[in-house]
Specification:
202 residues, mainly alpha, 11 helices
């Protein structure tokens, strides 16, 4: 029950920004997502310096819920609230229920996360994917032989690099950290995963 209350708090904390008008970067996001898919993939790096992953997600969302300003902000809001839930799930597994509730409430009420939690930019998605990639990394280190965990880790890293330029740096840091902290038996598996991720961007 407390988990759902914190999720509700996160929603309420972000609803105030749903009616705000777009600023220039949000206009770029909206215009880029409105392009035909082929043109979007070809021009995303020209209209905006970041990779096209966020715009593809926003475009697919607009196919179902429309291309209004409110619909675009709702896409980010859902991602932001889902990140609050993901943080609580992660913290519950790693540190216990009390810590998960404190962490979730802190993020739910964070003015910075609430602000970017309705902005039509990729920051909320970047945060959520970074947390997901961190959790996947830890699961791989626990069971480096598990193929499903390896695939999940690679997919999380690839998604991270597709939504924001910082995602590439975060992915590299996660891989380096995995190599440095992996037990002896897992180093070869982590090294192979790093090669897989690198091969996707060469």
């Amino acid at each position: 029950a407390l988990l759902f209350m914190i999720v509700l708090v996160a929603i309420v904390a972000r609803m105030g920004g749903l009616g705000e008008g777009f600023w220039i970067d949000e206009v770029i996001s909206s215009d880029t997502a409105a392009m035909p898919m082929g043109e979007l993939l070809a021009r995303a790096g020209l209209a905006d310096v970041h990779p096209p992953g966020y715009y593809v997600g926003l475009k697919v969302w607009s196919w179902v819920f429309g291309a209004s300003d409110l619909a675009a902000r709702l896409f980010t809001l859902i991602v932001s609230v889902a990140t609050v839930w993901l943080l609580m799930a992660y913290a519950s597994v790693r540190f216990g229920k009390l810590t998960s509730l404190v962490a979730g409430l802190t993020l739910a009420l964070s003015p910075l996360h609430a602000h970017y939690g309705v902005e039509v930019r990729s920051y909320a998605l970047l945060t959520g994917l970074a947390l997901a990639a961190l959790w996947c990394q830890e699961r791989v280190l626990e069971r480096s032989w598990c193929g499903r965990r390896q695939v999940a880790f690679v997919m999380a890293l690839c998604a991270l690099t597709w939504v924001h330029n910082l995602g590439l740096i975060l992915s590299a840091l996660l891989l380096v950290h995995a190599l440095l902290s992996a037990p002896d038996g897992a180093i070869s598996a982590v090294r192979s995963l790093a090669i897989c991720v690198a091969a996707l961007f060469t």
